[in-house]
Amino acid sequence: MTLKVERAGPALSVQDGGREGLLGLGLSRGGAADRGAWLEGLALLGLPPGTASIEMAGVGGRFLVEAPVRIALTGAQMKATLDGAPLEWDAGHVATAGSVLDIGAAVSGVYGYLTVAGGIATEPELGGRGFHGIAGLGRPLRDGDHLPLASDPTPDAPPMRLSGRSRSAEPLRVMPGPQTASFPDEVRTAFEAATFTRSPRANRQGVRLDHDGAPFATGGQLTLVSDFIAEGDIQMTGDGAPYVLLADCQTMGGYPRIGTVLPADLPRIAQAGPGEALRFRFVTVDEATAAWESDETILGRLRRGLVPRVRDPREMSDLLSYDLVDRPPREVTGE
Amino acid sequence: MSDGPDLLPLGPDGLLLRFSDRLGDAPNRAAIAFRAAFDETAPEGVVETATSLTSVFVRFHPDRIARADVETAVRTTLDSRDWSDADLPAGRSLWTLPAAFGGAEGPDLEEAADLAGLTPEEAVRQICEVPLRVLALGFAPGQPYLGFLSETWNIPRRTEVTPRVPRGAVVVAVRQVIPFANAAPTGWRQVGRTAFRCHDPKADPAIPLRPGDEVRFRPAAPSDLARLETEPFGGATREALA
User: Fold this and answer.
1) B63: nearest CB among A26, A263, A297
2) Mean pLDDT of A304-315
3) Helix (H) or strand (E) holding B99
4) Labelling B201: which of A111, A179, A315, B113 has CA 20 to 30 A away?
5) Which residues of chain A lie closer than 8 angstroms to B198, CB-CB?
6) A319 and A102 Cβ atoms separated by less than 8 Å
7) Is the CB of residue A138 less than 8 Å from the CB of residue A13?
8) Residue A313: which pLDDT band, with cuts at 50, 70 and 90?
9) Mean per-residue pLDDT, A308-327
10) What is the least distance, in Å, from the CA of B121 to any CA of chain A?
11) What's the mean pLDDT when you consider all of chain A?
12) Going by DSSP bridges, is the β-strand pair A146-148/A2-8 parallel, antiparallel, or unpaired?
């Protein structure tokens, strides 16, 4: 069974949880730019961690469903229709054979996710299916691609939706890293006091942050030997602008890094809209480690928070085909 | 910053054991040797170790082991010997990589040789003379930083970046040599080109080199490169190091 990409937006790619354990061979983990939103898609469809989805940066695309399939839409909200009928975001849906799924431009945020049960089943390379541009792994999706799908483990599961997303406006949490102590106190204080916005110069490798104040001093640290980078590291480049490293970052870097954004807060940077204010506050290493959660833990929590998606009869073009009065529903009769 | 090993947090699920914040032979050897020893006794919950030029990274799952317990395990291995004179671990390989030097395949050879105070012929001879250690892999999957050439090769990077060198470009700077994994911009000087691929999805293993392996370049004719590209590992050969 396949999903056909009839028309691909400019930055559509298969993404999963990334490739772990290859840092010493020069490969960063990669995977979904908004890991939380990717996991939300898996939770909605009851799929296991590691399942590959379609990541859509800025704009979606047009997809032809070749056989009945369950889908979920999460992450940056985009205008979506199934055979012309609007689809609820942050929810699961059933697409019938031959239906056309249209996903337009993002209304808010950057990275949207289309998850298809039981997951995109392209051939893995180095233990993952995701496009990792700087590593030369995979490629963006193109018009006419046929994506193989794994079989749906629970094709009859009722459609669910996420129970309300709380949008935090709290400062993003940053933990100290190997070079934090080498920044003077006043630089760290100024960093916590500053308000940033996401620069248009942003991609899956990282996001440059703009602010109105003076550039941040890097001291005499630019001659440091290159060393390991962690996803979420905030590096101070030569011009004194912070650059936050995302999923497709390089494994090593020579710029000093003032700290590491916690994984739970990193999607807010990846998804920040133009002009959205971003602030940071330092937390201790112990707080950061205590806040760490495995994909399995996050997925379990998301699943417990799902609620049934009640279909709105006004959206039901096939209402007349339902036997609304006489017969008990199929789950009761067991047919 | 001190010269001794520092144990530092790197992300909520990682820590970095940094033998030095300056590049050198001793901290690189220490990192590679330490990692091999730590892997033998790593506690449950440690999920990945890796070496950079002078550091060891240890990643763990905080829901399976406390950071303090990982730190204790690292310190126990650290205190078990003097790592600055440790032997490199067993199981390493010596790779011989054919490469064409100078001319169209090495447009910056003369400039690099001049900066090193050598003739182009002598420069190629020195680059191919001794095995160079894989100090670390990075920048692109499987791409090695090879070192160290003699002190005369302590030549700086260019201030102007070359917009694009091809995959397989052999570049030099600061006593190191890199065969490029992919076409990329660089401030290093291209002295040659090899058919060896640092990451080849069709090869087994797809990423052939490991930190601590040794690489010796063998001069090849430019006209040989096309044929070498059809051979396994671009004509590179591998032998076990004792």
Assistant:
1) A297
2) 79
3) strand B93-101
4) A111
5) 26
6) no
7) yes
8) low
9) 59
10) 31
11) 90
12) antiparallel
pLDDT band at residue A335 using 50, 70 and 90 as cut-offs: very low
Tokens of A290: 């205590």
- Take residue A255 and report the two structure tokens written for it: 């710029």
Does residue B38 sit in helix, strand or coil?
A: helix
- Which of B14, B63, B206 has its CB closest to that of A294? B63
Q: What is the ipTM of this complex?
A: 0.90
Q: Which residue of A has its CA nearest to B14?
A: A230
Find the length of chain A.
335
pLDDT at residue A222 is higher than 70: no
Model confidence at B2: pLDDT above 50: no
DSSP designation for B178: E
Residues of each domain in chain A carrying CATH 2.40.100.10 = 172-291
Burial class (CB in 10 A: 0-12, 13-18, 19+), A239: exposed
pTM for the model: 0.91
Q: Which two tokens stand for residue B178?
A: 């890199």
Q: Which CATH architecture has domain A172-291?
A: Beta Barrel (2.40)
Domains and CATH numbers, chain B: 6-85 (3.30.1360.40), 93-240 (2.40.100.10)
Contact assignment for A263 to B12 by CB distance below 8 Å: yes
Which residues of chain B have a CB within 8 Å of the CB of A230?
Answer: 10-11, 14
